[in-house]
Structures are given as structure tokens and as C-alpha cells.
Predict the structure of 60S ribosomal protein L7.
Amino acid sequence: MYEKAKHYHKEYRQMYRTEIQMGRMGRKAGNFYVPAKSKLAFVIRIRGINGVGPKVRKVLRLLQIFNGTFVKFNKAPLTC
């Protein structure tokens, strides 16, 4: 288990350093670097579900208040 955590730490540290390096290279060349947007969101139900469409209710499956679920970003969640 420890080796797996060590591997993930190394991988994400490398990705973080790459993002910083790309930003620096962009500034040095007189351009700019736009990092990739996140593709995952965590949705939490904090109020009642009245007024929410049936398809949204079925997809999110948030039956109780303060429950959460992960949602993959695509065009649909961005337009709501």
C-alpha cells in the first residue's frame, strides 16, 4: 500500500512541476500558458430537490441533504 501511495505522490508532483515549467516557458517566450481545466466536480445537495428535473435527479442520485457525488464535466453540466 505504501508503494502505491509513493508512486501517486511522485506522479502528481511531476505533473505539478510540468505545469509550473510550462507557465514559465510561456512567459519567457512572451506568450501565456493556459492549464487544462478539471474534468471532475463534486456535487453536494444542500437544499430541497423541488424544481429539479427528473432526469437530473436520476443522474445525481442525491437522496438526502448533504450527500455528494462526483460528476464528470462535459457540455451538459456546464450549461445548467
Summary: The CA atoms of residues 8 and 37 lie 20 Å apart. The chain has a mean pLDDT of 86.
